UniProtKB/TrEMBL annotation:
The lineage of its organism: Bacteria, Pseudomonadati, Pseudomonadota, Gammaproteobacteria, Lysobacterales. It comes from Stenotrophomonas mori. The chain crosses the membrane at residues 26-44, 65-82, 102-119, 154-180, 186-207, 219-248, 314-331, 338-357, 369-388, 400-423. Keywords: Membrane, Transmembrane, Transmembrane helix. This is DUF3100 domain-containing protein.
């Protein structure tokens, strides 16, 4: 816990780093730096002094803490959804249907490619979405970050974070001049649930536009980004992920047997631990409380250092989020069949819908002080332990997972833009 908090402080103090690359740039955010630092510390634990020796038992324990920490993500997304309900009700049909484009565009292109390249269950985690924070939460809670699906979504997340903005800049630079899509459709496609990808795509789409048109395109992209980040969470849980599993079951026996797929590393080569007994990643109640305490400290640090929000403003909002999580955990212990992720998301949404009940506006204002990105740095510092234990697998997947990740990004952009084009 001390190492995770120290890494949170260090990376938030450094802040975002911009690395120029051709006409674009790679932005390394504190959350990615935190992931890389803890991955390195855990991977090199044998060479570290005893005080910093994060060996395998500690790495496994960090995985349990991570599963509990991810619950705060779900609550924050629900709070954002409830508070944004009036804005979401005003959007047009094109925006309402854009998630279909995100979902089907991603899977139609990336899932077959992954299977052709010999990637197995990792393909589900890597292709059911573009692998942003929402995807980490969904896969982490459903399968665990040590699962094949967890490894897939982590690989997708790392690739997209490092290369996504550069790739989308190049992709839009090729597509926009062709005149196939209306600029408004392209702006809608840019709202993929990632601020960095949206900004990179808009930078190309708005070149040469009038100030009025730039304002309109930015508004469209922002609305699309809001829907992808908030409504997209529910869409992924109930539609995209089940559909991806359904497609995998039918396509893998065909595409996974091709000559190209057979030349890929086998499942045992990718993950020698797969034949061993499956680890229990379910945190105990004590672990859950420990993880929440760690997250409270991390969020206060990140909110203050990264977003300039004073601790006295942050703590009430975090307290509301923690209370919802603890209520869900307590109910889960009484009713074991309770779908915890769904319960937390729905509860958090209902308590902040304007006019839903007298305290809705107060809770929304209080929790709005907790910036969404302030949750990510500490969570990804914990996630670094999961990455460290699977580095051999990442090395064996190599270029395959990079190709699949970038194809998923292309698919979600083109899919959403195509859906939008039908409404012009």
């Amino acid at each position: 816990m001390l190492v995770v908090l120290a890494v949170t402080v260090l990376t938030e103090w450094i802040g975002p780093l911009s690395i120029p690359l051709w006409s674009s740039k790679i932005v390394i955010l504190p959350m990615l730096m935190a992931l890389l630092v803890t991955t390195t510390l855990a991977a090199l634990h044998g060479r570290m002094p005893p005080a910093l020796r994060l060996d395998v038992p500690l790495q496994r324990h960090a995985g349990k803490l991570l599963n509990a920490a991810l619950l705060l993500f779900i609550v924050k997304l629900g709070l954002m959804a409830g508070h944004s309900m009036p804005q979401l009700q005003k959007v047009g049909w094109a925006l309402a249907f854009q998630e279909l484009g995100h979902a089907f565009g991603t899977m139609v292109l990336a899932l077959p490619l992954a299977l052709l390249l010999g990637i197995k269950r990792e393909a589900v985690g890597a292709t059911f979405s573009i692998g942003r924070e929402n995807s980490l939460v969904i896969i982490g809670q459903k399968y665990g970050m040590q699962s094949a699906e967890g490894r897939g979504v982590l690989a997708e997340y790392i690739t997209g974070t490092v290369l996504g903005a550069v790739f989308i800049t190049l992709l839009v630079s090729v597509i926009a001049p062709l005149g196939i899509f209306d600029p408004r459709s392209l702006a809608m496609g840019a709202g993929m649930g990632s601020g960095s990808l949206m900004a990179a795509a808009l930078g190309v789409i708005t070149v040469g536009m009038t100030p009025e048109m730039i304002k309109e395109l930015t508004a469209i992209a922002a609305a699309a980004n809001l829907i992808a980040g908030v409504v997209g969470f529910y869409f992924a849980v109930f539609i995209t992920l089940p559909l991806c599993n359904w497609l995998y079951a039918r396509l893998e026996p065909v595409l996974g047997r091709t000559a190209l797929a057979r030349r890929a590393p086998t499942a045992d080569e990718l993950d020698p631990e797969a034949a061993m007994a499956e680890e229990d990643e379910s945190p105990s109640f004590g672990d859950s409380v420990l993880a929440l305490l760690l997250m409270v400290a991390g969020i206060v640090i990140s909110n203050a250092m990264g977003h300039g929000v004073a601790p006295q403003q942050t703590l009430p909002g975090v307290a509301v989020m923690v209370a919802i999580v603890l209520a869900g955990i307590a109910l889960k212990r009484v009713w074991r069949r309770l779908p915890l992720m769904l319960f937390l998301a729905v509860t958090a949404t209902l308590v902040t819908i304007p006019g839903g009940w007298p305290l809705a506006d107060m809770l929304a204002t209080t929790t709005d002080h907790v910036q969404f990105m302030s949750i990510t740095t500490t969570v990804l510092a914990l996630a670094g332990f999961s990455v460290a234990r699977k580095l051999p697998m990442f090395r064996r997947l190599g270029w395959r997972i990079v190709a699949v990740s970038l194809t998923a990004t292309a698919g979600t952009f083109i899919g959403a833009a195509t859906i939008a084009e039908f409404f012009h």
